[in-house]
Amino acid sequence: MYGDDNTESLKNANSLDEILIKSYPPGISRHIEIPETGIYQAFSRSAERYSRNVSIDFMGKEITYSELKKEVEEASTFLNSLGIKHKDRLTIMLPNLPQYIIFFMAAMKLGITVVQMNPLYTTSEIEYELRDSGSKSIVLMAASLEKVLPLRKKLLNTIIVVGVDDYLPPVKSFFFRLMDRNSRAHLPAEPGIIRYKHESVKTQIEDAKIDPYTDAALLQYTGGTTGVPKAATLTHRNLIANANQLIEWFPEDFKHEISYLASIPYFHVYGMMTAMLTPLLQGSRLIIIPDPRNQKMILNAIHKKKPTAFPGIPTMYHSIINHPDVKKYGIDNIKLCISGAMPLPQELQKKFEDITGGTLVEGYGLSECSPVTNISPLLPEWKDKRRPGSIGLPLPGTYEKIVDINDGETELEPGMEGELLIKGPQVMMGYWNRPEENKKVLENGWLHTGDIARMDRDGYFYIVDRKKDLIIAGGYNIYPREIEEVLYQNPKISECAVIGVPDPHRGETVKAFIVPSDKTLTEDELKEYCKQKLSIYKIPKIIEFRDSLPLTQVGKIDKKALKKE
To answer: What is the CA radius of gyration of the chain?
Structure first.
């Protein structure tokens, strides 16, 4: 179904099928049927089936599936009243809150495309994505309002403000409002700035007529294989497919009604898929953590709420097992963890499994693939069969091949290194408004990942090298070019280069090499300058001043030489 029409392609696809059928854990199908439905319709069926289950547990406030569905319908009526309609874009710039899920699903009901945005973004970063996506409406917290107000008149029709305290238990809500001045601040008296609080509505809006194959559900910004951030256009079909692929991959005991610790940010496509959409389609309980850096809050939630599944990134697992009081929290209830967004160190994997008694495996994916494409087997009894350093096997219905780096076409034999290409129902429709880029990246449905990989004879894949120059720090994709462009705006800088260097906690961290034009420039001054232009996780943590930078034979700054140093 997903192979090319030519005979050679079909032969190769059948060959991979034969390999993977032998390598798949028992009970997992190589091919699955994907529901022909929109995301809201799939959620609605789940809400009816699991109506009495708790869907959201937020700081002690519990919302059942039937209650959640009702609040989604209220929010969709609200959005409709604002004139936001099918195929419009709605930006959600929130941490993990109940309102994230509510507005996401309300948008899906109306056929609105969601633009996921990091609430840590600066005004210039927000402006770029609003302009590029054409989004005229945004959902945010009062604390983010100051960054967005300068864009109000030139880019936005509607700013919807939500509050953390709306979904806190009464006592916690009272103390939160007492301590947080933003929650009590009066909004500017301007048209289009609205404080949203859910309320019952009598009139329900009909579901939009969705074409799952062509209607964009999500614009997820990524640097792609190269260049400045661009939006991967993910359809309803893409996201529904990936959720069902994941559920098929789970051991039988984890396919329905389990509890998830949802601390990985929803604005990250990996968090949205593994800690929001997939659990909701399973009828699971989401224990929502708004701040993924708050170790104490996470450990308390694990101790008190006893989640079964914990999707995350290596930095999260590293923080937990290195907490001085980790043994006091009794975290051995965690049974299933999938680590994504960055490589999982084997030492961390072993230590985490020793402490929890659960299973922690590495997965792989890209924003362009909704995002998950590969996972190692999750069955506890398969621990001895795991392949060290492998990202695992392709998910059901996913095809992958290794091709020659130079021509991008010649398929290589197992064990040989080349570029990884992926094809499957979760692969994006294309980049938003980037026809030329799409021609380079998508060919006959095959996505050129830009990652160098190899496959062994049993169908396990291994990433040999990451995308050129990409820095992955704490699970965030950081693109050096973006930081360099900011640095070059500083009149005191003559030349600069940004690379990723190993970091025991974040995986990698950002290092900047600076050739100053003004010798009075200091490290503190430069970091303060970057704070005004970049999100906190993009700011160089290490700065090295130099008289000159190494150059290649053609006169370009030689980053390979810098990395070798």
So the answer is: 23
Instruction: Give the integer Cα–Cα distance in Å for 244 and 397.
Output: 11
User: Three-class SS of residue 442?
Assistant: strand
C-alpha to C-alpha distance for 192 and 377, rounded to whole angstroms: 49
Distances (CA, A) of 497 to 188, 270, 435, 488, 523: 42, 29, 30, 10, 15
Q: C-alpha 461: how far from its chain's center? A: 21
Q: Which residues pair with 477 in a beta bridge?
A: 472
Task: Provide the Cα torsion 25, 28, 31, 34; round to 10°.
Answer: -140
Can you tell me the distance from the alpha carbon of 76 to that of 302, in angstroms, rounded to the nearest whole number? Answer: 33
The CATH number that domain 471-564 falls under is 3.30.300.30
Per-residue tokens: 24: 């798949």
Whether the bond into 540 is cis, omega within 30 of 0: no
| Among 495, 497, 493, residue whose Cα is nearest residue 517 | 493
End-to-end alpha carbon distance in the chain: 48
Show me where the domains of the chain are located. Answer: 471-564
pLDDT in tens, 17-56: 999 999 999 999 999 999 999 999 999 999 999 999 999 9
Task: Give the pLDDT confidence of 69-101 residue by residue, as tens digits.
Answer: 999 999 999 999 999 999 999 999 999 999 999
With H, G, I as helix, E, B as strand and everything else as coil, classify residue 422.
Answer: strand
